[in-house]
Structures are given as C-alpha cells and as structure tokens.
Amino acid sequence: MVQSSVLGFPRMGRLRDLKKANEAYWGGKLSRDDLLAEGKRLRQEHWKIQKDAGVDIIPSNDFAFYDHVLDHIQMFNAIPERYSQHKLDPIDEYFAMGRGHQKDGVDVPSLEMVKWFDSNYHYVKPTLQDNQTFTLSSDPKPVREFLEAKDAGITTRPVLLGPVSFLALGKADRGQSVDPISLLEKLLPVYEQLLEQLKKAGAETVQIDEPVLVFDLPKKVKDAFKPAYEKLSKLGSKAPQIVVATYFGDIVHNFDVVKDAFQNIYALHIDLVRNPEQLESVIEQLGSKQVLSCGVVDGRNIWKTNFKKATELVETAIQKLGKDRVIVSTSSSLLHTPHTLDSEKQLPEEVKDWFSFACQKASEVAVIAKAVTEGPASVREHYEANAKSMKARAESERTNNAEVKDRQSKVTDEMHNRKSPFPERYAQQKQHLKLPMFPTTTIGSFPQTKEIRISRNKFTKGEITAEEYEKFIEKEIQEVVKIQDELNLDVYVHGEPERNDMVQYFGERLEGYAFTTHGWVQSYGSRCVRPPIIVGDISRPKAMTVKESKYAASISKKPMKGMLTGPITCLRWSFPRDDIHQSEQAQQLALALRDEVVDLEAAGIYVIQVDEPALREGLPLRSGRERENYLSWAVDSFKLSTAGVKDSTQIHSHFCYSEFQDFFHAIAALDADVLSIENSKSDAKLLKVFIDEAYPRHIGPGVYDIHSPRVPSEQEIKDRVDEMLQYLKPDQLWINPDCGLKTRQWKETKAALTNMVNAAIYYREKY
Ligand code: GLN
Ligand code: ZN
C-alpha cells in the first residue's frame, strides 16, 4: 500500500491563534500556562485535521511557539550564556533568544534571524561557541509531543532537523572562531539519545530533515553526512526508522553523499514539485529495500495539485520500486501555505476553485495515495473534479489574456535599453534637474502615522468616501512637501501615505491579482504576511500612482521622485503562478510598470525610483546556470520596466542590503542612473566592489539606520561619508538614509534628516 504523508503543518491556526496567544503572553495579558495550553490545543487541532483528511503519516514536533530551529537550540542546550545566566523560565529563555528580552533588569538582544532557504520564513541561527557542548534537555520536546499525540490516539512521525543541517545553518558566536560543522562529534550523542527515547515512547519512524543537501556544500559539510548517518543507523532497532527529508531543490549534485551516507536509512524524501526531473536518477541511487517519499503536493504555493501529473510521477516510482516502497507526500512542510481555504469568503468563485491551502493539501496527499493504491476508480469523483478545475484554469480568460500575450510577443531587445549610455544621460539630467553635488533624498515612505492608518481603515470600511480619503492623502502630501522644504532636501518624495504595502498596493491596481482575507503565512515568530496571489496575466487597466505623484510635484519647488515597486519584488512577494514560468510573469509586470513609468514622465515626474529589494532573495540556491538564468530575466524585467523614458529622466533603484559581491554584474546591468542601498549597518568596505568594477553611475549608500529611533549625529554621518569617499568618487555619491521611513516617528525623522542635510552641505563646501 502507498502511504500518504505531510512533512509539517502551519502552526498559526485558523485565525492566527498562535500569533494572538504569543503576543498576549509577551504583553503580560496571558499566563504561561494558558499559552502552553493554547499550543497544545493547536497541535491537537492540526493532528486531527490531518487524520480526518486521511493522511497516514502525520508529523509531530513540527509545531513551534517561535521557530523550529530555535526549539533545537534549546533542546540541545546550545544556549549562549548571555541567555542561560538569567535562569529564566524555559519559555522566557526561548523567547529571549528569539526576540530579545528587556525586563526585570535583564537586557539581551535576540539571536540572529535569517531567511530559511529561499522562502519568506526566517529561522533563528544556531550561534555556537569554541568550547560548545551539547546535552539533551530533560523531557525533550519531540518525545513530549509524540506522547501527547499518542494520548490523543494519533501515532505521529516526529520531525527533527538533522545534525548536519543544524550545524551547517549555524555560525560561530561573536568573538568565537569555531567552524560549526567541526562540532558534529559532540552533537551526535545527543541525537542518539533522542532517537532512543523516541523509540521507547513508541515512535516507529522519525523524519530527519537535511535540507542543506540541496545546496552546493563545502567539502567539510558534505563529508559530515557519512559519519553522522552511519552512527545513527547503527542504533538499529533501538531507534525509529529514519526518513531523511530534503526539499526546495534537487540532490543530484550530492549523490555521492546519498549513496555513501544513507545506505542504511529506511527512506529518503525528495521534492518533486521543484525538481521532478530528479526522480529517475534518485531511484537509481536507492538501496534495494529503501523507500522513496515523493513530494508531489506543493508546500510552497497555494495551487491545487494537478492530480494527473502528480499521479504520473508517483506511478513512475511505483513501477520501479513497488507500492510498499513509495510514499506520497507534500514537497516540503506546509508551513509556507495558509491554513485553510474555507476561511476565504471574498475570493471570486472561479479562482477559489484553483486554490488549495494546508488543510486542502492534506486531503490531496491522501487522495493521491488512495488512487495509486486502490486504483483510479476509488477516487474517481476527486479526480474528475480536479481535472475540471485544471481545465477551467488553463482555459480561463484570466490566464489567457490575448492582449497581454500579444504585447509580450512584440517585446524587442531595444525596449530593454535606454536611448544613450550613462554619460550622455547624465549630462542631460544635470541640466534638467539642476542638482547640487552630494544630492540628498529619502527612499520613499515617511512615517505612517496613526492618523494615516485610521483614515485608510475608515476608507476600506466605507466609513469615509473616496473624495474624503483623497483629500486626506493630499493633505498628508502637502505636509511632507512642506517638511522637505524646511529640511532643504534636494529630491523630494510624496511619502507614500496612500500605500498599505509596497506590493499589495500595486497588486490591487493591476489586473491578474487576487487577494485573500485569511491567507496568512508565518514570516518569523508571531509575524505573518498575507501575500497577494498572481492568478492570471498581468495588465494595468489605468495609471496607479500618477495622481499622487503629479499632485506632489505640482506643490514642490524641487524635483519630485516617483515611486514604484519593481517587477521582481512584485513577483517574489506574491504567490506566483505555477502554470507559466516566472520570467513570463516578471515580463508582464514589467510591461505594466513600463507604462506607469512613461505616464509618470509625461505627468512631469523626471526622477523615478523602481524599488527591487527582493532581487537578491530570488537568487537560486545554487550557483551556476540556474542562477545566471534567473539574473538574466530578472535584469531584463527591470530594464524593460524603466527604459521607456527620455535620457533626461533619471531612473533610481533601491535595495535594502549592500552585499553585491556575488552578483555585481547583474546590479551593474540594471543600468539605473542612481542606486540607493543599505550601508549604515554594513562594512563600508563592501563598497569597494564599485571601484574595483569601475562602476560609473551614482550611488547612495545609506548613511544611517532607519530601523532604530536613534538619531545619528551630524558627525557620525560625516564619519560614514568619509568612509564612503574612500571607495566612491565625490560626484558619484548621494546622501540618503538606508531605507524608507514608514516605521519611524516624525520627531526622530526630522532630527536625523536635519543632521543628514547639514553633513551634505559640509561636503558640498569642501569639494
Ligand atoms: N520605497 C519604499 C519605502 O520607502 C522602499 C521599501 C523597501 O525597500 N523595503 O518604504
Ligand atoms: Zn529598503
């Protein structure tokens, strides 16, 4: 029989219950016991959902109050002393590492949090010491939660992060120099104990995630797999059978590891949504009894699974391995999908029928497993309905907009390039814009005050009319223009008061997007995002930002900068389509934005910034051809969106980071006249790449951190600029903050910008 399995379930609950409980606990409004009880309730509910859906292998220990990697840090007692020394209650020590702790005389910042592979989830980085030791906590969480499920009548498969991934995803603590992977031998005994305890508790199998196998691995990490898994396999019947899970990529380039290290493990899980082509070669690597878990239901997106395609893949595996050696599974944990489609009451029926959230995906794995076990007749209705949805989506007018397709077919190479090279453009821009040296500007948003949020809410709820709201926005724009006059900035912005979110705002004005009301996914800790969904071909029915920018320009005496979110960021911060390549979606977005850019120019906006903070995070996990491909279409889409303007119009772009070393050629290829980047928290040396590569255009490395309310002094800013001038030419340098100011208060914003402008004036006089 072919079993069905889920690799992990979202933790938040139907109505973001976990977020609410956590935040109430942090705010002192919920007791510790009530918080723990809420966690228990959510786990029980999620197990039951999967059981009722007919899932055979249900995960446990996939739940976490904050983050599953952090759970492991605490369970292994890999807790830096600055947290452990306070002898906090375990749950408080846990949150202290996740989000910092500032209470009762204890003041510790959080551990570093970083992106989980190429998803929008963030994990807490294991932070290790030179003399690191590991011990297993008493009453370890995986055992406790396994028993809790067992009590509820559900036998689960506990999920652990594997020892190699745990270390490889970690780092040495500040001032330490340990190479995390060198700690493997010290860590393995803890895994052995844990596996033995799980077995004693009754676990027959355990899922050990080793997602780092999809990376290009340094030799040391690669070599760690063999000793690790030989040791764990040696436990034999003292441990549960091991399923090693990989996801978010293929493992073909690490086959030597798979062959050597995993010989004696029970099963291997691979992601066949991302990389279906790895199936046959992975099968060849398997030992003669090993089981293959086929991830055919997408854990990273919201689309209904195409049963026909998924079944074909599973059948290929069955033909080679037999039914008892195949498991039907989600491609990865469902952590990256919203809880349930049932909560959506406002989606158009047509598109709702195309979606599947976590609860629905749990049913999908069960249905596919049944189909291949008992034959198609056993689930005929499901398959027929699925085929009907697939057909409807493929034939829908939303996914077949002839005008969009026609326009895409007419895109030429020429459309990607500005009319003249930068020196000629710059000569014209100089005349046209009349900017001083060291021009000052901001990144777009000004403080999103309470009044702004209240007014937007009222408008959304219909409590004020469109005209009233528009008047309110105009008043906000007047105010920020006046403030910029007073501050004596050089290039103004309108402040983005009308924008809820930099992607959603555009999504709502474009054809081809859909929005959920409850489609939240965890980003980190209690923070969730609700990405818009690209459901069809993208087009722009009418101008999206011209009214506000034009109004702002009409009342300013200095150049007003138009503000758009770039095609890659719109794509990356949405759920993309899975029926056409992302490069096509990016091109559609680019064409829509191109029209907006041209309209802005026609309305008298001669400086236009197209933000692409998500460009870097879209980089494929492995270097090589895939990465080059991505960069090539990503750069093309940016250029297509911006190249429609005259030479005299200045194109800016913005990035919230400053590590460009590994893809500098792509940043240079954007051909933006001015780049503003994060720099205040990074080493100014990172700017060296700009001289090394003889970058000719203009750059505004952020001179102060906008994440903190702290006001930088004029001297600090000058010190920063001095450092920058070691790497950039004076006539190349812009002076601006790191990023948008929307999360700040006006008080510190004005003070910081005053110091920034004074610093710029000082350099203008000096040079
Ligand atoms: N223009 C946006 C703002 O200032 C940019 C935000 C971002 O880079 N994330 O808010
Ligand atoms: Zn930014």
Automatic annotation (TrEMBL):
Its cofactor is Zn(2+). L-methionine binds at residues 443-445, 496, 611. The keyword Oxidoreductase does not apply. InterPro entries: Cbl-indep_Met_Synth_N, Cobalamin-indep_Met_synthase, Met_Synth_C/arc, UROD/MetE-like_sf. Keywords: Amino-acid biosynthesis, Metal-binding, Methionine biosynthesis, Methyltransferase, Transferase, Zinc. L-homocysteine binds at residues 443-445, 611. Zn(2+) binds at residues 654, 656, 665, 678, 739. 5-methyltetrahydropteroyltri-L-glutamate binds at residues 19, 120, 527-528, 573. GO terms for molecular function: 5-methyltetrahydropteroyltriglutamate-homocysteine S-methyltransferase activity; zinc ion binding. Its EC number is 2.1.1.14. One of its GO terms (biological process) is methylation. Residues 4-320 form the Cobalamin-independent methionine synthase MetE N-terminal domain. Pathway: Amino-acid biosynthesis; L-methionine biosynthesis via de novo pathway; L-methionine from L-homocysteine (MetE route): step 1/1. It is an enzyme of class 2 (transferase). The active site is at 707 (proton donor). Residues 438-760 form the Cobalamin-independent methionine synthase MetE C-terminal/archaeal domain. It comes from the Eukaryota. Residues 392-417 have a biased composition (Basic and acidic residues). NCBIfam families: met_syn_B12ind, PRK05222.1. This is 5-methyltetrahydropteroyltriglutamate--homocysteine S-methyltransferase. It comes from Cryomyces minteri.
